[in-house]
Amino acid sequence: MLKKELITRLSETGIVGRTEADIQSDIQSLLMSGKFGLSPARLEVQVGDGTKRRIDIAIGATVIEVKRELTSEENAVDYVAQLDGYVQSKTSQEGTRYNGILTDGRQWWLYETVPGTDGIRRRSTFELSSADRGDDLISWLQAVLATRKDIRPTQETIETFLGSTSPAYEQDHAYLEGLYRQVSHDPTVQLKRELWTRLLRSALGTSFDDQQDGLFLDHTLLVIEAAAIGHAIMGISLADLAADPARMIRGDEFENAAIYNVVESDFFDWILADEDGKKFITHIIRRVSVFNWSETEHDVLKVLYESVINAATRKGMGEYYTPDWLAEGIVEKTVTEPLKQRVLDPSCGSGTFVFHAIRRVLDAADKAGWDNRTALNHIQGHVFGLDIHPVSVVLARVTYLLALGDRLQGDRDGIYVPVHLGDSMQWYQPADHEEQTIKVDPSGVDLTSGQKQATLFDIGEVLAFPLADVEDPATFDRLVTAMTDKAKTYTDGSAKKPDLYPILQSFGIPEFSKDWKTLQDTFNILCDLNAIGRDSIWGYFVRNQVRPLWLSMKNRRVDVLIGNPPWVAYRYMTEAMQKQFKAFSEERKLWHGFKVATHQDLVGLFITRSVEKYLHDGGSFGFVTPLAVLSRQQYEGFRTGDWGEYLRGEVTEAWDLEKVRPKNDLFPVPAAVIFGLRHDFNPHDYAQRMKPPAAGFPEEKMVVEGIRDKRGWTQTKVGLTFAPIINRALTSDEASLSPYRSTLFNGATVFPQVLFFVAEEDSTNKLGQAAGRVNVRSERSMHKPWKDLEPLSGVVPRRFIYDVHLGTTTAPFRPLKPRRAVLPIEREALLTEKEIEDGDPLLAEWWREASKIWETYKTRQSKLSLLANLNYQNKITKQMGGATHRVVYSASGNTLAAARLDDPRQIVEHKLYWLPARSVSEARYLTAILNAPIITELVSDYQSRGLFGARDFDTYVWRLPIPTYNTVDKLHERIAELGAEAELIAAKTEIEGCGFQKARKIIRDALSKAELTQKLNAAVRQLIEENGAP
Known about the structure:
Radius of gyration: 33 Å
Shape: globular
EC number: 2.1.1.72
Catalytic activity: a 2'-deoxyadenosine in DNA + S-adenosyl-L-methionine = an N(6)-methyl-2'-deoxyadenosine in DNA + S-adenosyl-L-homocysteine + H(+)
Low-confidence stretches: 444-460
Distance between the termini: 65 Å
Keywords: Methyltransferase, Plasmid, S-adenosyl-L-methionine, Transferase
InterPro entries: DNA_methylase_N6_adenine_CS, MethylTrfase_TaqI-like_dom, N4_N6_ade-DNA_methylase, SAM-dependent_MTases_sf
Structural class: alpha+beta
Pfam family, one: Eco57I
């Protein structure tokens, strides 16, 4: 434990009589405290450049310069220049990256040289603002200095030393930025970036922004770290690799041990295009070396990925990693004959499912008495992984080796890790793909480009490789590698091309055969590509692209499919990808129109396509899915199991995981698991009156409840219960039972908040304001990108400021204080763009500014103007000149809240639904029904579900048999009277200063205390039962 006095002294600057030497001494004591694994730090070290300059403190690859007090960089120019000289001298002497820290004990500023320049730049800062932050300072320094050893790699330590909030990440990412600027115009680097772009857009749709370098650099950093960790886990000396970092990137040590396809030159070896790149890799090796990787768990790479790529980015990518206990349970249920079945995870991510599949096979092999060599050879031909995400593939390959563990040291042949980078969806291959050749078009359509240009680059040729006779993909890989390596020797486009004959002959390709000619033509193209500096990546790209095609040929399909498909939402797909998604979905009867398109995602189609392409007839599957797959309307076609003309999917069991605790251990939305079988449907057999194969979902689902155990599935399943209940699913032909559905409307899209909602401002001077005009300032938005914008300020005519009701201004039986918004509405009509521009100049000025901001920050998919978005589907104009009495209710939430409005000038926003009422009694009748707890209970079967339970009410309320109000019906009158009583109680309830959620609770408590809730619930229950409860 560090002495509190030492940390306190460091946190206090400018103390009279305290010298730089005193601070320097305290810092040395801090560094020698045992927290950094250091021998005594060297103080007052000579720079070693022939001058008498001395460095205050030298630690590893860091120099620390101590000053008495630091206030700002502007006031520390001379200090920074002094530190710059030290860093440049040490960098030159050591030939590696060097850190510089400038500190006064309280302020800690980290500097490093920018690649391609001779100057340092500040990369990270830490302020020891109080003695209570001593541990935070230790963590910051540990990450920067990287001097400790034998740290156990856990989620916490990896995040501290390598994660996106660590100074190490800030420094390394910034260094990569400078390095990339140095080489970004190199044709080979451009090619690697372009192919990476092509794959990522296929995986992520519009949530992937290829104009930003940040993700490419993060992926580069992750792959280098993963490569270093992969070597360390296998016991390979990182110190030896630091001497020649290119060996690590190429995976030479693995190949020397006859282990292939683990670490190899890929999109991210661009870093070797500059000499500073080798320094960077060496520095990463130093950072990774602080951990004791012999103590690692197999999911450590997943932790690394999640510590660098933040949760928001992963959500946009549809990336939700599966916890180990669940993956293990799915593998146990699907891989029933581990020594016979061939298993594929078509979206393997970091390799969690692959790991557990391998371990299951190895356990069975041990029980069967198989020797090590036989078991390892068997696994390579029986457990496969595919993923379109290049970083995931690198992580999964290392995970594959972790699953093999100590068996790698036993008697074995060469190991070829069958985890490949590829498009499992095969977007541009037909369903019955049986081509004899793999074709990769360097000028081919970017699968998901939302841009008008059709290609990434153009050479007007296609790379083609024979595929039909490839029984062993490893042989194919070696052929492709030999061809591309040979092509790399061709650098002059006017010279004669190298002779391919020896290579084709060594692989047994018959001379002058069709395959011979195909390969010769492809080789010539590869030579031409290399001559213009665009060949080096094609071997890697082609070798990976062939595996999905190879696995999809009928005689090579697998017995079991497992995994967690990408949850990429339709609304995040590019326009071209949406068209392809729609075409694929329509062909497989999965498309349900644009009405539910915004709720659709890739999950159902991905599972269907994977079953279609990779699973043989009678094969089984087990996939993690969103819980919505079990019930929501957008998955209706998927649930039928009628997935094509001759393909049927039979889901034999479905798990509802919503009640597994803790909730945050799974995914951001409730999840499910489906298990099933593939059946091929022969129409000839059906014509002969044979029974068609089973298809669709079971009537019941298994509700899984209990607490998971992180130790694994064996421990977890003991604490879980599996209760069968009827699975209530929505269908498109399920009619609304209430006539009120036809008079229901959703509120208007008054969005974003910062462009519409305002608060009145008092004049800041003595001039006041003219009658009918008001000073306003808009309210900040809560969501990006709008939340980062400054509010609008201006003068607006008061007649254009309207009361607006939202979900947050609605409580049971009582509207709360409405919000105020600037809206272009006059005399109960929405103004046109021309009327706004030609009308009141103050409104026109406000609207011009708001529209300009809208056009700048609206989503790339949106083609609507601000006015068109406001009146989307005429949701504003439908409210003009309407009924005096309206009923509004919340569109989402845990408990439905409804209130009555009696001012037709008030606007209803889209977080509310509204209905016109013919009288105040009818309005109270409807409000009473909607607020009855029985309605929330009954409608929950229809609702989508979030992490905290049911959430969207939408129009589902009106699937219940709620009859039209009838003044002669005594029960109807009774409900209306109860509604009137409830309004009185709600109006008298004190809620001043309460947020809307608390206000709702206080009112509900008051109603319950008055025993009105119980009476109301009984009356509404009777109403529903008399009219045909569902």
